[in-house]
Design goal:
Oligomer: heterodimer
Structural class of chain A: mainly alpha
Helix content of chain B: over 70%
Radius of gyration of chain B: 17 Å
Number of domains of chain A: 3
Number of strands of chain B: 0
């Protein structure tokens, strides 16, 4: 046996032997233990095997949840699209609200005053 | 597991074969079990049953409950066998599962009641071994083990009885290797003192 104050990295055979004797199961019941484990062999494997329908059921629950979420999203988008006002036609958009407007500026022979261009663009908004 | 590691004790008679031959043999048994060979699983159980029962008893104390935990461990290993890496030794992988099964049972027992000293460890249990009853040293050792924290006694049993390295025990118990060394050191100090008293008496 080693000095108890030293840290020994090797197993202690004497201590190991007495501990083994103290913890060893009773002699002769090894076969009984083996038999009881093997008696539950099939049950353990059966319990661990998840039936196919359970797998499908788990996936169907997930699929239903995803479908419901997708339906809500589509409903929201469709509703939002229906509430939006009709877009204006191109001509209506280009029509001047007051004064000559952008068309007059584009078709003029003389270059426009920059401040007028800016003001007309701001007005369009 | 390193077969030539200095921390590996000489193989006791009931110990599984050592080294690469053991790993190859066990990998073959595992492959056969995975293929549905019931007898191959039986061989693995037969080979490791004594070790698994000792480890479970180190954790739990009570012999009957320990056997239940060892059985749980084997069946859990059977179910998880696909996760076993056949390039590594089977023993540490299995003992980790057995130790976890025993620890789970211990936790459930602690939830059920405030836990006194394990009756099986102190020798007053409902069904102590016949050998142990005859052995006063065995009784004293079990009493001393019962006084140790569960992790400490598991560590010393895995190291000094089962011959696993500190690193392997660290993996099995999910604790740092330094903690394993410390636990083994403290457990040995207590148990060696007991043995010294026994010899002196």
């Amino acid at each position: 046996m080693n000095d108890e104050k030293t840290f020994d990295h090797r197993p202690d055979p004497e201590l190991g032997a007495v501990l083994r004797r103290a913890l060893d199961p009773p002699r002769g019941d090894q076969a009984a233990f083996l038999a009881r484990v093997m008696a539950r062999y099939d049950g353990a494997l059966a319990a661990a095997t998840v039936p196919t329908w359970e797998v499908l059921a788990a996936w169907s629950r997930r699929g239903l949840a995803l479908a419901a979420a997708a339906a809500v999203l589509v409903g929201f988008l469709v509703g939002r699209a229906l509430q939006r006002p009709e877009p204006e036609t191109f001509d209506a958009a280009m029509a001047p609200t007051s004064g000559p407007g952008v068309t007059a500026l584009v078709t003029a022979t003389d270059p426009p005053d920059a401040s007028v261009v800016f003001a007309s663009l701001v007005e369009q908004r | 597991m390193q077969p030539d590691s200095p921390s590996r004790p000489p193989a006791p008679p009931s110990q599984p074969p050592q080294g690469a031959a053991r790993i190859a043999g066990e990998a073959d048994l595992v492959a056969r079990t995975l293929a549905g060979d019931r007898a191959a699983f039986g061989l693995l159980v037969e080979r490791y049953a004594p070790q698994a029962r000792r480890v479970a008893r180190a954790v739990l104390g009570d012999p009957d409950e320990s056997d239940d935990a060892a059985q749980d461990g084997f069946l859990s290993a059977l179910v998880k066998l696909g996760q076993y890496d056949a390039r590594r030794p089977f023993g540490p992988w299995l003992m980790r599962i057995v130790a976890n099964a025993a620890t789970d049972r211990r936790r459930r027992r602690q939830v059920r009641k405030a836990e006194p000293l394990d009756p099986g460890l102190v020798g007053g249990g409902p069904r102590p071994d016949a050998d142990a009853v005859r052995s006063e040293l065995g009784e004293r050792l079990r009493a001393a083990l019962a006084e140790l924290p569960a992790r400490r006694r598991t560590a010393v049993v895995l190291f000094d009885v089962e011959g696993y390295s500190h690193g392997e025990i660290a993996e099995m118990l999910g604790i740092p290797e330094g903690t394993v060394r410390s636990e083994v050191f403290h457990a040995r100090r207590r148990l060696r003192a007991l043995l010294a008293d026994w010899k002196g008496a």
